[in-house]
Every structure is written in structure tokens, then in C-alpha cells.
Amino acid sequence: MSIADIRQTYQKFELLESAAATDPYAQFEQWFQQALHSEVHEPTAMTLATADTAGHPSARIVLLKGFDAQGFVFYTNYQSRKGQELSTNPHASLLFFWPELERQIRIEGGVAPVSAAESDAYYASRPLGSRIGAWASPQSHSISHEALAQRVQDLTLELGDAPPRPPHWGGYRLQATHIEFWQGRPSRLHDRLVYTLNAAGGWDLDRLAP
């Protein structure tokens, strides 16, 4: 079988305007709860796409750690490639893909760091190994396997059981301006409903051609 012959028929659900929430965060909450109850593998995994000042894009998987009407939160090393790109071009997109439900969610908007208190609280909730790892890893920079292992060993002894949050590590919040809900449908005639933030601070709902 050639790659061109690999295809999947989507037919589990449909997405109509009459059934959609008036607020995209309420719609996201509805779909997210369905993903949890359907035992979607890694429901919080999302692709984060950023770009540098020249417009060169990069993408990677990160984990959603919170959401509300203020936006979608994830955590990372501020000195990583994504952190450096967000410092000079604070706009990004997120993509959730839940194949078990034949759904995608695309989110676009501006990005800003969360408060120090919010980052501190989440950091303290992480397993000790992950907290040490945030200190040990110069994320996105060159390092040997042996050097990283040594840094972990040294910092484990130095920081003990209650390491403080590294100043170079914390959270970001993407404040959405566009949120698109995609539901797979037969014959590639997929449902696409997009919410766009308007000048009054409300949301306009539109259907896009598949």
C-alpha cells in the first residue's frame, strides 16, 4: 500500500451551530470532558507552534496545565527555543488532535508569562525529579548525556527535597483570539466552526468550508 492510499473515514459525530456553545471556552470544556471520559490517549497533549522574528516556524508537543476564560496555560524553560521565540514574537498557535473522537481544536492568540505565584504553585506540585530536571536541563542547548546525568546528580544533592522554582522556568498563557473546532465527517466534508474575538470583547461564530 502506498502512502497516498492510507486514509480514514470519519463518521462518529457532527458539529452544528445549533448545538455549539456561544462561548468557545465553554465549547472547549465540553469537548475536553468528553475526551477525558472517552479515555483519549494524552488528552492534554497539544502542538505549540511559535515563530522567530524572521517568521521561521517551529512546533513541538507540550501539555496543557490549565484553562479558563483568560486562556490556555503551559509551562517550560524560558531559555528554550520556544521561550526565546515567545520573548521576541509573543504570538502562537495550539493544536489538539483527538483521533479517538475524530476531532481537532486550533487556537491562535497572544502569549504572556503567568504570574510568579502561579508558576511557583504549579512547580511545587510537580514530582521531585521533574523539579530537579527543570534546574538541570539547559533546554534546547547542546549537552552530552553524561553531562546532563552529572548535573542531575549534583543538583539533587545541592537542592535537597524542596528546591525553589528556577528563575528561568515558568508558565505561559495563550489568550485566544481565534478558536476553531473541527469535527471529522464522511467524504472529507468536515465540520469547522470558528470563534473569533471581536472588538467588543465578544465572540463571533462562523462556519468554514472543509
Structural account:
The protein has a single domain, classed as Electron Transport, Fmn-binding Protein, Chain A (Pnp Oxidase, Chain A). α4 (128-136) crosses α5. By secondary structure, the chain is an alpha+beta fold. It is globular and about 60 Å long. Helices cover 27% and strands 33% of the residues.
Helix content: 25-40%
What is the total tally of β strands?
A: 9
CATH architecture: Roll
N-to-C SSE string, H for helix and E for strand = HEEEEHEEHHHEEE
Low-confidence stretches: none
Shape: globular
- Helix/strand class: alpha+beta
**Largest sheet descriptor:** 9 strands, antiparallel
Total helices: the number is: 5
Distance between the termini: 26 Å
Q: Tell me the fraction of residues in β-strands, as a range.
A: 25-35%
The top level CATH class name: Mainly Beta
CATH superfamily grouping: Electron Transport, Fmn-binding Protein, Chain A
Whole-angstrom Rg: 20 Å
- For this structure, the CATH topology is Pnp Oxidase, Chain A
Question: What is the averaged pLDDT score?
Answer: 97
Tally of individual domains: 1
